[in-house]
Every structure is written in C-alpha cells, then in structure tokens.
C-alpha cells in the first residue's frame, strides 16, 4: 500500500492545493478509511468564503483553522484497523473488519463536560472537535477530513457500519439524514395541544438544498398534510416536488409578501403549523416567522456558521404570535442508525440515489466547490 496519501487542502479561504501526507501509523483504537465519497456541505462553502466562526457564543465557539482538509459527510471502506477498533469503535457494537463500508459522525465529544453528561444523544459538547471543520491538516495524523484518499478516524469517533444494500451515493447522505432528527424533536412537542409537529400539519421548508430536501422527504414520511418549499432555484424546486413538496414558491419570481400571502391562502388564513428554516442566510428568517400561524413552531437549522444579523420585532414576531422557536445546530449521534435504515427502506420512493448530481476528483476541488454554489446542482461530492 502507498506510503503517501494525497489530499485537497484548503490553505486559506478560496485557495486549494493538492498535497501529499505520510500514511499515518494507527493509534490503538483507530482505523484508516479509503474515502469513496465526501459531500460538500453548506458549512464547507462558508469556510471556503472565509466565514469560519461556528457555535458562536457557546463554550464550543471556534474559528476553522487553516490549512485544513475539508469533508465531514463521508463514506468509505475500512483499509486498516486496530484490534481494539475492530471490537469497540462501531457505535452499535458491531465488529468491523477491513473491507467494511462505514460512515461516521463528524463530531468528536469529550464525554466529560456538563452538556455531554446532561444532553442525551445530541453532540452539544463544550469541547467538541469536528472532522473537516476544526482539525487542521498541519498536525499529525493530518488526514482528518474526507477530501483525501485515506482518512484517519480517531478512537473517540462515532463510526457506523453501512447496510450491505446501500450504495455509497446514498450512504454519503447519512449525516444530512441524521440532521432530520430535528423533526423528531419537533414531534416531541405535539403532546401539547396546538403545538409541535402533528400528523396532517402544513409544513413550510425554506431552502431546498440537500438538507432542505431531506427534511421535505422526512416530513412527508412523518405524515405532513401539506408541504410547501421555497428556494431561489427552479431546478431545486423541481427536486423538492420529487421529494414530496405539494407547492413550491420561487423566491426569484415572488416577493416575501406574496409568499407569505400564499402560505396563508393555502392554510385558510391561519399560516403554517411548522416552518423549517434551512437557508444558510438570516435574510429569510423573519419571513419564516411571518408564515407561521399563531402558536406555530419554527425550526432554525440553516445558519450553522455565523452569517450575520437580522432585525426582529420581539413583540410582533415572538410574543404576540406565541410562537415556539427551536434552534438546532447539528444532529444526534444516535440518529445515524435510523437515518441509514430510512435511506435504505425508502430508496425506491425518493430520488436518494440521484441526489449526488456531480462528483469531482481531488485535483478539481475548487471546481467542485464552485459547482456546489450553482443553482443547477444538488449534492456535489469529492471522489478521491
């Protein structure tokens, strides 16, 4: 096996270089994965643009370091594994071996802080680290992101064996599908009258990129009565229809007032029961609140990186409307098993296999990034 490993390295915002690194020696409990596909996430786009602050205002606040190997939506094949990792690293206790297809949670948690000890499942660690986001390639073992031929997975990683029937093109969506556990969180509120996400509810999804589309599909699976999707791209709105949206609103062809009025017209004048804000900009945040019924619930998940501020009237938008506003960064480590099962079970119902619309090699990392920003793309992936 080769003694050096190639990787696409983001040396500074907007600047990629293909570099070679020594093949790492595995620590006890670690493994090496040959990367098959690594999806480009909205977070990666922010980092490329220099918008590097994440978890702002929390003990986990960080600025992405450079140089870095990006890529945290990864699927690959085990190429080397230590005996302890073979026995212990798989999240559900399954034994791993060379040749197994795996995916992993990008977040590494300490297990000791207050949040780790009090918040079950969700990776809200005060000391969290993240593959492809907070671990620089300058330090050994270097290969801590998916835009590399081989990726090093530390002993404290949550690793998941991919079902045999799931192709890499679908399995690379596992991290995003795990994020749709947000809808399960909203469902918890439905034990109270008029709150949360109930069967038959009208759900609006603002932002129809890959994250938004998987939320459209999950809302459909969970019994939404009506799903309305918005986006700047007619191409992506066509995808939203394929994933279960009943009505789509083109942001480039309508005003915010027209979109709000349309949502109200489709709900008997009340407004949506649930709004899912999946756009990576704060500009449409207040619009989402305006679309809500009185007592409705809004989930904010799109602004994972610090993209700036927006103005809100607390009386009008929060207090008077009696809204329930839920902010979620990230997903639960417990969400991968359910995500993989849903992707496998419903692959014939939704276009999961087609969702990776473009793939690029390491030498074309910048082209891949620019394509991912195009309105005529869906999930763009690096295939090292």
Automatic annotation (TrEMBL):
Check the record and name the Pfam families matching this protein: ADH_N (PF08240), ADH_zinc_N (PF00107)
- Gene3D superfamilies, per database record: Medium-chain alcohol dehydrogenases, catalytic domain, NAD(P)-binding Rossmann-like Domain
Domain Alcohol dehydrogenase-like C-terminal positions: 210-330
Q: Which cofactor does it need?
A: Zn(2+)
Q: Which UniProt keywords apply?
A: Oxidoreductase
Signal peptide residues are none
> Where would I find the Alcohol dehydrogenase-like N-terminal domain in this sequence?
28-164
Any idea what this protein is called? Alcohol dehydrogenase catalytic domain-containing protein
């Amino acid at each position: 096996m080769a003694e050096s490993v190639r990787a696409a390295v983001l040396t500074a915002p907007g600047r990629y270089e293909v570099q070679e690194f020594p093949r790492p020696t595995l620590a006890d409990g670690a493994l090496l994965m040959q990367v098959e596909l690594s999806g480009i996430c909205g977070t990666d786009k922010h980092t490329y643009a220099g918008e590097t602050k994440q978890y702002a205002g929390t003990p986990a606040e960080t600025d992405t370091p450079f140089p870095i190997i990006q890529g945290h939506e990864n699927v690959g094949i085990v190429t080397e594994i230590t005996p302890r990792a073979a026995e212990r690293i798989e999240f559900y206790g399954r034994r791993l071996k060379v040749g197994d297809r795996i995916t992993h949670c990008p977040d590494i948690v300490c297990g000791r802080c207050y949040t780790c000890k009090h918040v079950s499942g969700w990776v809200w660690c005060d000391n969290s680290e993240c593959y492809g986001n907070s671990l620089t390639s300058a330090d050994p073992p270097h290969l801590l992101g998916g835009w590399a031929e081989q990726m090093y997975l530390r002993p404290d990683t949550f690793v998941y064996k991919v079902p045999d029937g799931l192709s890499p093109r679908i399995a690379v969506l596992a991290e995003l599908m795990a994020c749709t556990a947000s809808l399960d969180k909203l469902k918890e509120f439905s034990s109270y009258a008029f709150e949360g996400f109930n069967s038959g509810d009208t759900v609006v999804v603002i932002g129809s990129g890959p994250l938004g589309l998987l939320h459209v599909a999950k809302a459909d699976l969970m019994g939404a009565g009506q799903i309305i999707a918005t986006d700047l791209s007619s191409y992506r709105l066509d995808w939203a229809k394929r994933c279960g949206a009943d009505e789509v609103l083109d942001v480039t062809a309508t005003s915010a007032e027209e979109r709000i009025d349309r949502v109200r017209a489709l709900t008997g004048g009340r407004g949506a029961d649930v709004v899912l804000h999946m756009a990576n900009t704060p500009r449409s945040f207040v619009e989402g609140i305006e679309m809500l019924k009185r007592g409705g619930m809004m989930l904010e998940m799109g602004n994972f990186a610090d993209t700036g501020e927006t103005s809100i009237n607390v009386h009008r938008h929060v207090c008077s409307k009696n809204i329930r506003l839920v902010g979620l960064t990230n997903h639960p480590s417990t969400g991968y098993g359910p995500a993989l099962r849903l992707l496998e079970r419903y692959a014939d119902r939704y276009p999961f296999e087609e969702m990776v619309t473009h793939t690029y090699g390491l030498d074309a990392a910048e082209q891949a990034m620019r394509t991912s920003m195009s309105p005529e793309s869906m999930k763009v992936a690096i295939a090292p």
